[in-house]
Amino acid sequence: MTESTRRALGVDLGDARIGLAVSDPLGVIAQPLETLSCVGPKKDVQRVAARAKELEVSVIVVGLPLLMSGEDGTRSLAAREFAQQLERRVGEIRVEMQDERLTTVQAERTMISDGVRRRRRKATVDPIAAALILQGYLDSRPGALS
User: What is the overall mean pLDDT for the chain?
Assistant: First the structure.
């Protein structure tokens, strides 16, 4: 990775799909990337790790779906486990967690207000949620990728 390339990968982990987003090389703006279908925890970790290496990211930001009370629930515990497995897999790439409460709802509302049809929303909500997670991380930690 060159000195000027400090990209980040955002991950929105779901039960059936994983949304991915990537930052620009300066680590300022997040954009939706793609949706992966879940095939199993071990394989999902391998696929996200491979994508992170392809993109030469310096950090992977996994969404943490805390309960509205701020406590862990079953989904946040699964996200923490996924992040730990990912961290073991990527070694040199930092793995961090970002509170993602309501990001999928926010992504859905944005698409509805933009007039996106239901079928298209289902196909694109996960990478948009990942971009919201990643953008929240980038905004809260200016210079975090350097």
Answer: 88
Tally of structural domains, the chain: 1
d(CA 70, CA 84): 20
The amino acid sitting at 20 is L
Instruction: List C-alpha distances in Å: 60 to 11, 51, 53.
Output: 7, 10, 10
Over residues 53-69, the pLDDT tens digits come to 999 999 999 999 988 88
Residues 6+ apart with CB under 8 A from 103: 12, 63, 129, 132, 133, 136
**Would you say 61 and 21 are in contact if contact means Cβ atoms under 8 Å apart?**
no
The pair of three-digit structure tokens given for residue 144, joined into one six-digit string: 């975090």
User: Which CATH number do you get for residue 41?
Assistant: 3.30.420.140
The whole-number pLDDT of residue 30 equals: 96
CA–CA separation, 142 vs 38, rounded Å? 32
